[in-house]
Amino acid sequence: MGVEAPPTETERPEERPPGRSLGALVKATEFDTRMLGMLAALAVVWVLFHILSGGTFLTPRNLWNLSVQTTVVAIMATGMVLVIVSRNIDLSVGSMLGLIGMTMAVVQVEILPDIIGLDHPATWVIALAVGITLGALLGGLQGFIVAYVGVPSFIVTLGGLLVWRGVAWSLSSGRTIAPMDSTYQLLGGGSRGSIGELGSWILGILACAGIAALLVNGRRQRQRFKFRLRPLWADITLGVIGCALVLGAIRVLNSYYLPPQVARQVAEERGIAFPEGGLNIPLGIAYPVLIAIGVTLVMTFIANQRRFGRYVFSIGGNPEAAELGGINTRRTVVKTFMLMGMLVAISAAVSTARLNAAVSGLGTLSELYVIAAAVIGGTSLAGGVGTIPGAVLGALVMQSLQSGMVLLRVDAPLQDIVVGLVLVAAVTFDTIYRRRAAR
Amino acid sequence: MTEQTPLVELRNINVAFGGVHAVENVSIDLYAGEVLALVGGNGAGKSTLIKTLSGAHRADAGEIRVDGRPVTIATPRDAKALGVETTYQTLALADNIDAPGNIFLGRELTTRFGNLDDSAMEDTTRKLMGRLNPKFQNFKVPVASLSGGQRQSVAIARAVHFNARILIMDEPTAALGPAETAQVKELIRQLKQEGLGIILISHDIHDVFDLADRISVMLTGKLVGTVKKTDVTIDEVLAMIIIGKLPGEVTKSELAELHG
């Protein structure tokens, strides 16, 4: 079959000369308008809380805490997106977090000290590896029953919700297991668990270089096939905005300082003279935040750039088409559940490290927050639609609401009411938006 | 048609669902550069028969030969490896994915690191569509937002891109308007010119007479017969479809009844 010359790359009239307005920028950069809407909503929530709380919300201290508090749900939400996109659901993540957290605690508190000694430098790695392996196994088991036996995921993971919680309880007989290994504790953030000022700036500069590289690579890809290029000014604006956001965030995180007592200790350890007026040692990016960012990047890459991600979306769009395309849909579904389990393990590590203990109720109800984050972030429960960064943003929105209400001293029941209403409202807006967009 | 080895032979194919014989002892063959129409009423077993060739369903008994050699087709992947491609009546497109993503579904182009090479897939799709449907321009939107004809051309593009030699088309014009139907017909003629063997399933007897070289008629799971288009009239084919009688067997009064 001869292939004729490619059609000339004609510019469609509606795409021609973009004016330099905001609308034109959005169009030229092909930026997701839903994502912009969410960012705007988040900004409104933040400013509102800042005003209502008398100026305590948008402070480095609160934002730093917010960044750390968001991580546990955000990490799991990235996996939940793929599970929901493939037309499944995982209700067991909260209980699984409890079980895996408890297991990692038992491993490092009761088993490893007898074998390799207390506070061995390898303890945290071994505990984490055990947790991630367990997560893959539990998730894989649920995925196997869903994909190969054909039991609906709602039922399988509802069972998992009860079973894993029960197993966690019997593992510890209801005890609290503490304290955690000292290196492992860093995974949870805390006053020592940050990469510090210099580290944060270096990371920020690397991130900017990364953004630039992505944009340049994007242009190069399009040039390779002589596709119409985005206007250069749009790419540059996009890069500048991206870098400004990254560096701004790092500046905020670097403006939160260690509490005076810890600062004194650190100064002594480092042999710095502790001045009379106190010493401002910036925390910078917390380790759990770093982990969450890493997870988000890797999961976004998997979802958009790997075959596995494409298959997950195709199954969500039309399972029959995926099957006829020669895709092993069952294996793909099992993999999404395994991945979910591994991410639960990472979240379990962050949350036990942060608490410095494993308690039997750990992770209770977090399945609901994780699902809510994914859904607020634009994941459709009908399957086929969803983005990883959207879910992370969804987690941030929910956490902002919660910590804002704590700042305002809103009662716990009212907090639940607000979060519930916001969930329904967000999905309502989204449904209306999609209906409009479909026309 | 000169005597040559058929591209495909289906011999004595049987498929049963429970106790129901959906396809019973059916044999058809297909030559290169030929359009074979497969016609029959609803439930005649046409779709089930071709599913044994496309790998979507296994035959309970019978033999499939490609280029004269017996082959086993258990999955869609097996069929594709033999150059058998299918466009389904439902189109089997993932609505949430764009045209290049659908065309390459399950056979994605990747970079040397195994990452999806979206630009290369888009480029190939543009070239492919330049040949099949030059008006097609929406390469980056989910196919859900495309028109019926555009979706059909995506499905056909997917089938022909991977060096298909045997193309099965299940009701390719059923959901299309007149202009789009004409376009798809033109495309079928073009693919036939290029030497593909095409099995066309259609309810539209005029489309069938327009496009087919030979016509195989099925009724309640059995093959009534295969006739050359030039040897029969539309009425005779209708008689085969409805009462299951071959042109020689059918009486004038029966033919008249069809119009009654």
Brief summary:
The complex is a heterodimer of chains A (439) and B (260). Chain A has 439 residues and is an all-alpha fold. In chain A, 71% of the residues lie in helices and 0% in strands.
Written account of the structure:
The complex is a heterodimer of chains A (439) and B (260). With 439 residues, chain A is mainly α. Chain A folds into 2 domains: 31-193 and 286-438, ABC transporter involved in vitamin B12 uptake, BtuC (Orthogonal Bundle), CATH 1.10.3470; 194-285, no CATH class. Helix content of chain A is 71%, strand content 0%. Chain A has helices at residues 22-28, 33-52, 60-85, 93-116, 123-149, 153-172, 182-185, 196-224, 232-254, 260-270, 287-305, 307-317, 319-324, 329-355, 366-376, 388-407, 412-438. Chain A starts with 21 loop residues before the first helix and ends with a helix. Mean pLDDT of chain A is 90; it is low at 1-19. Chain B is of the alpha/beta class and 260 residues long. Chain B has one domain (8-97, 163-259): 3-Layer(aba) Sandwich (Rossmann fold). Helix content of chain B is 35%, strand content 24%. Chain B is built from 9 helices and 10 strands. Chain B has helices at 46-54, 76-81, 99-103, 118-132, 148-161, 178-193, 205-211, 234-243, 252-259; strands spanning 8-17, 20-30, 35-39, 61-66, 69-71, 84-87, 166-170, 197-201, 214-219, 222-228. In chain B, the strands form 2 sheets. In chain B, strands 6-7-8-3-9-10 form a 6-stranded mixed sheet, with helices on both faces. Chain B has a 4-stranded antiparallel sheet with strand order 2-1-4-5, with helices on one face. In chain B, strand 7, helix 6 (178-193) and strand 8 form a beta-alpha-beta unit. In chain B, helix 5 runs parallel beside helix 6. The longest helix of chain B has 16 residues, at 178-193. Chain B starts with 7 loop residues before the first strand and ends with a helix. At the A-B interface, helix 8, helix 12 and helix 13 of A face helix 2 and helix 4 of B.
